[in-house]
Amino acid sequence: MKVILLSDVKGRGNEGDVIEVARGYAVNYLLPRKIAIEATPGNIKQLEARMHNIRKREAERHSQAETLAEALGGKVVVIEAKAGEEGKLFGSVTPGMVADALSAQLGVDVDRRRLDAHGHIKVVGDHPVEVHLYQDVVAEVTVRVVPEGSAPAVAPVTKDNEETSAEAPFEETAAAAEEQPEQTEAPEAPAETD
């Protein structure tokens, strides 16, 4: 059965694609969830009229994903986990934990299903994790797993962040101080002309 996809379906196609699927898959899954519509001649004509808007939305999503990938690339996220003396974790670091850490530490909300850790993270140390943002746009972040209560391993990361944030307000304050005399002089000039 031919259907027109109304949204992206992993492994099947993207919005606006006309694909052939099994009748049961279309009738029981795609059509009731409004993920696709049947590919009738009328629907195909409507699709052709909407293709410009679909391409425009896709280009916008792609550019946003590339911007986010540049911002995420090379970042380090620290996760504390219970570990034994040899560095083996009691359990493992899950994609959900990585997604929560990305949200808390970097302010980026990512669906846990879009994270690829290349297997289970079961030892202390640095682990590369791929974040699939949109179709072919992928960013790589480093997940640093540290034993619970090991403040020295976490301190350098937070110290660097604090130094960076401490420098920025100073620069902003200096810039604001330079701008203030200009603002003070501007109101005086009209007062003198009155």
Description:
Among the domains are: 2-55, 3-Layer(aba) Sandwich (Ribosomal Protein L9, domain 1), CATH 3.40.5; 71-149, Ribosomal protein L9, C-terminal domain (Ribosomal Protein L9, domain 2). The protein contains four helices and nine strands. It has helices at residues 23-30, 41-72, 95-106, 151-193; strands at 2-5, 18-20, 36-38, 76-81, 88-93, 115-116, 121-123, 125-134, 137-147. Strands 4-9-8-6 form a four-stranded mixed sheet. Strands 2-1-3 form a three-stranded antiparallel sheet, covered by helices on one side. Mean pLDDT is 77; it is low at 151-194.
The CATH architecture assignment of the domain at 71-149 turns out to be Roll
Give the end-to-end Cα distance, rounded to a whole number of Å.
80 Å
**Average of the residue pLDDT scores:** 77
Structural class: alpha+beta
Strand-and-helix sequence, N→C?
A: EEHEHEEHEEEEH
Question: What value does the Rg take, in angstroms?
Answer: 26 Å
By DSSP, the count of extended strands is 9
Strand content: 15-25%
What is CATH's topology name of the domain at 71-149?
Answer: Ribosomal Protein L9, domain 2
What keywords describe this structure?
single chain, 194 residues, alpha+beta, Ribosomal Protein L9, domain 1, Ribosomal Protein L9, domain 2, 4-stranded mixed sheet, 9 strands, 25% strand, elongated
Summarize the entry for a quick read.
Helix content is 49%, strand content 25%.
